[in-house]
Amino acid sequence: xxxxxxxxxxxxxxxxxxxxxxxxxxxxxxxxxxxxxxxxxxxxxxxxxxxxxxxxxxxxxxxxxxxxxxxxxxxxxxxxxxxxxxxxxxxxxxxxxxxxxxxxxxxxxxxxxxxxxxxxxxxxxxxxxxxxxxxxxxxxxxxx
Length: 144
What we know:
The protein is mainly β. It has a single domain (about 5-115), classed as Distorted Sandwich (Deoxyuridine 5'-Triphosphate Nucleotidohydrolase, Chain A). It contains 1 helix and 10 strands. The strands form 3 sheets. Strands 1-4-8-6 form a 4-stranded antiparallel β-sheet. A 4-stranded antiparallel β-sheet has the order 2-10-5-7, with no helix packed on it. A two-stranded antiparallel ribbon has the order 3-9. It starts with a strand and ends in a 28-residue tail after the last strand. The mean pLDDT is about 95.
């Protein structure tokens, strides 16, 4: 699938690390570093502008290494970039660690996955079909 992109950053376009990668890394596009203090959040620009085909979205997700090693994650994960959005792709990061974290220009801050989606059409009914699970919610299957 081809996706139109404007790259106003001073970094190469995101790319897949391996032939089977689902996501590609997004890089911070900064004039100066951002100091992210514990429990602080910020919007990090990428310099990328996308035009996705209808029926697709871009999902912005945390990078597992940053999350595990530094406590840095995407706050609204997954962030959704709709096919009709034409603004700059930004990443909302939060520092869940107890140490400040410096975001530097060019740092890989998140990953982006392009995914197909459907739009639902509501059909109001009086009764839903029965299932084995029924209304069982969180923890309904127990611990095994």
